[in-house]
Design a protein that fits this description.
Blueprint: H1 16-23, H2 27-51, H3 55-60, H4 76-83, H5 85-118, H6 124-134, H7 139-153, H8 159-182, H9 187-195, H10 200-211, H11 213-228, H12 232-237, H13 245-255, H14 260-280, H15 282-293
Helix pairs in contact: 2-14, 4-14, 5-8, 5-11, 5-13, 6-8, 8-11, 8-15, 9-10, 11-14, 11-15, 13-14
Length: 295
């Protein structure tokens, strides 16, 4: 019997990525990251201060002078904004557009992704390839054809038309993301549920969805942020009564270029909602995107 001795000369050499990750816990790096975060939040803080200052103060000096004149802060701008029917209606229109667009995309893409990942049917590979191909199609290519289609259907200039456009162009990425996550679920779980007599809907609801919560949450955040901050689609397909907050602020900028108090207040309200959503669920956002990108 021959005994083979294996000697270890030292610890295995770590790669560059491993060394970078290990150093992220150092105090210096944490301080640098904190400085970057503060630098990123400076424009947000400046916008907030500008929205709390009267127009005369914003015109006379910059927002940073508030540290020497804190008495200039006032909530009058927000009171005037609430009384502005155009901006208030556009803010509600943004909610009416963003919420249905997000819900429809998440529901439809989850069902489609499950079918592409776990149900065998003819043409599944070709259909998956088509979904991937639609990811590279720019929105600008479809603006004129879809506008003509909506005009013939009576949907042009309505909230429903804007929602349908967002849903149509949000589905390819959503299906691609969730499908890549679904195929990473252990096959034994799905097969065990099928052997127990569970139908596809039961498997989707009780097995797949609980595991896919990070991916679904990240998709919800991504879709909501994209629709909420959209300007191009709303400019083309929305009229004055169905325009979201981005279009309303653009119109106010053209009409009242020096009305900084109204613009800053409306812009901060428009920004604070998606910012709060992202900061509140950023952990799920990162988990879901990374899970879908590594399959």
């Amino acid at each position: 019997m021959t005994v083979v001795e294996v000697s270890v000369s030292g610890a295995p050499r770590r790669g560059l990525a491993s060394r970078v990750v290990s150093r992220l816990g150092s105090g210096v790096v944490q301080v640098l990251l904190a400085l970057v975060a503060i630098f990123w939040l400076v424009p947000v803080f400046g916008l907030l201060i500008a929205s709390l200052r009267p127009e005369s103060a914003n015109t006379a000096s910059g927002w940073w002078t508030i540290f020497t004149k804190p008495s200039e802060l006032t909530l009058a701008n927000y009171a005037d904004l609430v009384g502005n029917s155009t901006v208030l209606r556009s803010f509600l229109n943004t909610v009416y557009i963003a919420v249905p667009s997000t819900v429809l995309v998440v529901v439809i893409s989850a069902l489609a992704a499950y079918g592409l990942a776990w149900i065998e049917f003819p043409g599944r590979i070709w259909l998956t390839t088509l979904v991937v191909g639609l990811l590279v199609m720019p929105i600008q290519v479809a603006l004129i054809p879809v506008a003509k289609l909506f005009g013939s259907l009576g949907l042009f200039g309505t909230i429903a038309g804007v929602v349908l456009f967002h849903v149509a162009f949000g589905l390819p990425f959503a299906i691609f993301l969730l499908r890549n996550f679904f195929v990473g679920i252990p096959k034994d779980l799905v097969e065990a549920a099928r052997m127990d007599g569970a139908r596809e809907w039961v498997i989707f609801k009780r097995v797949v969805l609980p595991i896919a919560k990070p991916a679904i949450a990240s998709l919800t955040i991504f879709q909501f942020l994209w629709v909420w901050n959209d300007l191009l689609v709303a400019l083309v397909f929305a009229d004055q009564d169905s325009a979201p907050i981005t279009v309303a602020l653009r119109a106010q900028l053209r009409q009242f270029g020096t009305n900084i108090d109204l613009l800053s207040t409306g812009a901060f309200l428009s920004m604070i909602v998606p910012l709060a959503v992202f900061l509140g669920f950023q952990r799920y956002f990162v988990q879901g995107v990374l899970a879908g990108s590594t399959k």
